[in-house]
Amino acid sequence: MPKLFIRMLSPAVATDEGYSVRCAWMIQEDDGRTRARGETDFRGLSELIDPGTDWVADPGNVVVTVPSEHVLSLSCEVPGRSVGQIRRALPFVVEEFVTTDIESMHLASGELKRGAPVRVDLVERSLLQGWLDCLGALDIRPGHMYSEAELLPVAEGQASLLLDGDRALIRTPDQAAALDRENLSLATGTLEAERLVVLHGRLSELEAGQLAPELTVVAEQTSQAETALEYLAAHWRTADAVNLLQGELRPKQRVNPLWARWRPVAALVAAWAGVALVTMAAEAIYASHRADELEARSVALYRDIFPGERRVTNVRRQLQAKLGGAEEGGSGFLVHLGAMASAMEPGTRVQSLNYTLERDELAVDLYTGGFETLDRLKERLGNQGVRVEITSAEQLDNGVRARLRLAGPGAGA
């Protein structure tokens, strides 16, 4: 998509008619060609932007530079064993480089690495907010905002210089700044650089003669850019620059239209997945509770049969041991006993058991809470494939005493 470049040339001051600001602008095509460019004010910028232009609504397509006179760019050593410690210590380290309250400054940093210098840009919050409010009034929300000198290339032992009218932008690996050209010789005299590379514009004979003799001057005129903004626009992607839009000023990402269309479906799928997960969890909890309940009934029935047993850890294994191992008849007894344990309700108490191996029958004497409880017990045993015959049932003061005969589906009458 095309890119809109805006170079702020002055602070943005709110007025009754909008904002007082000067800026240069340029629209660049995907292939790098310049569609249009110029210099204007707030009113001209408002007429430039077509409300129906959707690509401008994407913050990633808007790049803004601000005057480096208003930005302090430096590199500093910040102590810390982790990135989090470095981030917390950074404001205290850079505070010594500013004369105003650090709370009134917006701090943006480059990548934080342990043991490596940190690139830092500091700018007055009110200035930065003024530019953002000015652009916001035109529905322009940039995704990139840089100090213009930060977009110059850097190399060890080199200072990069861009000449623009009576101003100059200069950058070294540690610093970036803007200055008047009349102070150029004074500024370059303090640089720890061996080479001065002129990237855009030309030094006058007087300026070249005032530079330190040990400084090698190289005129690099490979760029075809006609203006300073064109040069900065051509190099913003490759520049090692600090984006000022960090923290609470970080631009919101534009919602993908395709994702916006499918987001309700995704939300519905996520909701159903949540319901399914809750249902599975509930079923697992119920199954676990049911297993614990059946195990408790088996243990209670085992203690009724063998009241002298001190410890019950594995009902099936202990019953097999009582019956002398895996005898042929023992398996039938365990089947009937297991069926009884799963079918009994709380309050039912077994009085005695009598198993006949030849007929595979289990006679059970028990006490229940009433005839309805006895009928439910018979029905549950029948649902498990066990033939049940109630041979006697007697009403007592505290319940019903009954005798049942359990047999497998293939047993004789």
Q: Would you give an account of this structure?
A:
The chain is an alpha+beta fold. The chain has helices at residues 42-48, 83-94, 125-136, 184-189, 205-210, 228-235, 257-305, 315-322, 328-343, 371-383; strands at residues 3-8, 13-15, 18-20, 22-28, 34-41, 62-66, 71-76, 105-109, 118-124, 144-147, 158-164, 167-171, 176-180, 195-200, 216-219, 349-356, 361-368, 387-396, 399-407. A 5-stranded mixed sheet has the order 5-4-1-6-10. A 5-stranded mixed sheet has the order 13-12-11-14-15. A 4-stranded antiparallel sheet has the order 16-17-19-18. Helix 7 packs across helix 9 (328-343). The model is unreliable at 325-330 (pLDDT under 50).
List the topology elements.
Layout: E1 3-8, E2 13-15, E3 18-20, E4 22-28, E5 34-41, H1 42-48, E6 62-66, E7 71-76, H2 83-94, E8 105-109, E9 118-124, H3 125-136, E10 144-147, E11 158-164, E12 167-171, E13 176-180, H4 184-189, E14 195-200, H5 205-210, E15 216-219, H6 228-235, H7 257-305, H8 315-322, H9 328-343, E16 349-356, E17 361-368, H10 371-383, E18 387-396, E19 399-407
Parallel strand pairs: 1-6, 6-10, 11-14, 14-15
Antiparallel strand pairs: 1-4, 2-3, 4-5, 7-9, 8-9, 11-12, 12-13, 16-17, 17-19, 18-19
